[in-house]
Amino acid sequence: MKKRIFPICFMVVSCFLIGACKSGRPDSQEVDLTSVPLATIIQNAQEEGIIESVGMPSNWANWGASWLAMERKYGINHNDIDLSSSEELSTFEVEKNSPTKDIGDVGYSFGKIAIEKDLVQPYKASVWESIPAWAKDPQGRWVVSYTGTISLITNTKLVEDAPRQWADILDGDYKITPGDVVRGASSQMAVLSAALAFGGSLENVQPGIDFFVNLAKEGRIDPGEISEGRMAKGEVAVGLHFDFAGLSWRESIGEINPDLIVETHIPQDGAVQSGYCLIINKYAPHPYAAALAVEYMLSDEGQIDRANGFARPIRSDVKIPDEIQAKLIPDVEYQNVYTSSDIDAINKACSEISRLWEEEVIPNMK
């Protein structure tokens, strides 16, 4: 995600006073988590004793290790419901008069939406100055915890010479699995990455669409989902997804079927890098536990947890153990990744990609 990076974010929202949280209804007086000393946050979080998250399951980006660490260190139990970014915000909004969720993990563009809907409150972790400017809301209403970069994920049993750039795909005869481009954020980022590779921009995504139109006419687009299950079954030759997904699949599939080798590369001619944002629900029933979770996720330990889950930590000042670093894609492959903090331009580009995919790519698919 600090060459040319494209962030997706984690957002953090704080909550109301304990009395309001216990009643399950918003109160006119809010907790200002930005002014509460960390020692007090820890003490109050331990008294709350639990945190309820959305979109932060144990098997995604190694969240499970962090939740377990918080339980061992602070005695805070954890529950999660795995939701999409839009579903997370909808849950915060629908439940505001009887809230049950504290914290979420959302895509970058959803940070602005959460602010517009007044669903979040600010909290700045003690390592705030270590977070790049593009990766945090100035007021602390969201903060990126880790990044993901669009990658080419190859089943080397089906494709012996794994592509390392979009141009390589043109020379192949295998199918590409982009996922749901009409609705899926990562799939749209993949098309945008291809657009950048062939001379496009946020304002001009047509080169990426043209690339996939050509593949569609050749019968080389697999319309199925891009998933670990399909990759393990040999149904995906080359999939388009974030790097941490490909690396995770390599490990999990390799344990089950050592003969199926999954190879993941960042396309060297164009790759969008995105961040995920931590957000604390404005109506969180356990605001201090939520703030402490943000604190831990951005700590050295939390950032190492993300790296151990194959995500790239947002903080560059954290020393990643050599044995973990060795499992990641080499830094050299990230030299040309693209990022933009212009959320409106990103959303507009994704909307255009969705429209053009339906109009130009799908009709040509065989």
Structure description:
With 366 residues, the chain is an alpha/beta fold. The protein folds into 2 domains: 38-147 and 274-326, D-Maltodextrin-Binding Protein, domain 2 (3-Layer(aba) Sandwich), CATH 3.40.190.10; 149-272 and 335-364, D-Maltodextrin-Binding Protein, domain 2, CATH 3.40.190.10. The protein has helices spanning 18-23, 38-48, 63-74, 85-94, 108-116, 166-170, 185-197, 206-217, 228-232, 243-256, 287-298, 300-308, 322-325, 343-361, and strands spanning 50-54, 77-81, 103-107, 143-155, 176-177, 238-242, 262-265, 271-280, 312-313, 337-338. Strands 1, 2, 3, 4, 5, 6, 7, 8, 9 and 10 form a 10-stranded mixed sheet that branches. Mean pLDDT is 91; it is low at 1-29.
